[in-house]
Automatic annotation (TrEMBL):
Keywords: Monooxygenase, Oxidoreductase. The keyword Oxidoreductase applies. Residues 11-307 form the Luciferase-like domain. It comes from Micromonospora rosaria. Gene3D superfamilies: Luciferase-like domain. Coiled coil: none annotated. This is Alkanal monooxygenase. GO terms for cellular component: cytosol. The keyword NAD does not apply.
């Protein structure tokens, strides 16, 4: 039985995209500019994602970038979407995010992912050993990480910073494994709808089915990450989304490159198979004018029952990126509610 409706918070996932012909420094400055502006617009969180060996993405060191963003903002929550735990020793992650929490208490989210976020050769370069590259050890590594923050299982190592400075821990997922684990541990869960739309509903069902109340959550809390490009018209939004579609195609083809301009993307000679791939990826995206995006996000909320939506906007020019978030905050956000 529905007792009423509540407003759904909107948050931001940014990859510090590197546009062709620009620099990594420019990409990081643009991400900082976006964090400041989305804070002004009232977005709830600003997360950055760990990726490696990808020329179009500059957010390979989330903890370093988040420290900079923390100094550039004052109220918006900041976090990782996520840190890929198989790439790192849990002690290092505890020290990094314990430092962030100590510097910016109450503002830090530690989103943890199970995938390496890169290819196996790069993952091996990060870990320097095959040990730990398998996902099988993930639950134990997660338990070790949490223990460094809480100190509930005493041991010879004290994470400093870390113990006593615990950020909000989230599990991220694009399939069912992390959904079940998040539920069993009573942690908030964020699902990557933006690149795994066909698995969204089954994963959320598993999360809610397996949820056990914990010291962190009394009830399940699910956030859904979705691609969103909003412009004054549907046609302009489609045009702005072209570089992201082409970049994803090239990534999946083993040819990652920086984001090209919308004109270059529009001129790309897609084969029939490539065009079908790009169109299939459109499922579940929020793409168009404010009216269109409102309808698409409302439908997504109705299907998923998400407690929060996290928008990721991968476009060539930072001005268009900022404008998309402005339009959504000013003309879409107020109409997004879900039944409770």
């Amino acid at each position: 039985m529905h007792l009423g409706v509540i407003d759904v918070p909107l948050s931001v996932l940014d990859l510090a995209p590197v546009a062709a012909g620009t620099t990594v420094g420019a990409a990081l400055r643009h991400t900082t500019e976006l964090a400041r502006r989305t804070e002004e617009l009232g977005y709830h969180r600003f997360w950055v994602a760990e990726h490696h060996n990808m020329p179009a993405i500059a957010s390979s060191a989330p903890a370093v970038l988040l420290a900079h963003l923390g100094a550039a903002t004052s109220t918006i929550r900041l976090g990782s979407g996520g840190v890929m735990l198989p790439n790192h020793a849990p002690l290092v992650v505890a020290e990094q995010f314990g430092t962030l929490e100590a510097l910016h208490p109450g503002r830090i989210d530690l989103g943890i992912g199970r995938a390496p976020g890169t290819d196996q050769v790069t993952a091996l370069a990060l870990r320097r050993t095959m040990q730990g590259l398998s996902a099988e050890g993930f639950p134990q590594e997660l338990a070790d990480l949490v223990n460094y923050f809480t100190g509930e299982q005493p041991g010879p190592i004290v994470a400093t910073p870390g113990r006593g400075d615990m950020p909000a821990v989230w599990l991220l997922g694009s399939s069912g494994f992390s959904a079940q684990l998040a539920g069993l541990l009573g942690l908030p869960f964020s699902f990557a709808h933006h690149f795994s739309a066909q698995h969204t509903l089954p994963a959320l069902a598993l999360y809610r089915q397996h949820f056990r109340p914990s010291r962190w959550l009394a009830e399940p809390y699910a956030m859904v990450a979705v691609n969103a490009v909003c412009a004054e018209t549907d046609e302009r939004a489609e045009w702005l989304a072209g570089p992201s579609a082409l970049s994803f195609l090239r990534l999946r083809s083993g040819r990652p490159e920086p984001l090209v301009s919308p004109d270059e993307a529009a001129a790309y000679p897609y084969t029939e198979v490539e065009r079908e791939f790009v169109l299939s990826r459109r499922e579940g995206q929020a793409l168009g004018s404010p009216e269109t995006v409102r309808r698409q996000l409302t439908e997504l909320l109705a299907r998923t029952g998400a407690d929060e939506l996290m928008l990721t906007t991968l476009v060539y020019d930072v001005t268009d990126r900022v404008r998309s978030y402005e339009l959504i905050a000013e003309q879409v956000a107020g109409g997004l509610r879900r039944a409770v």
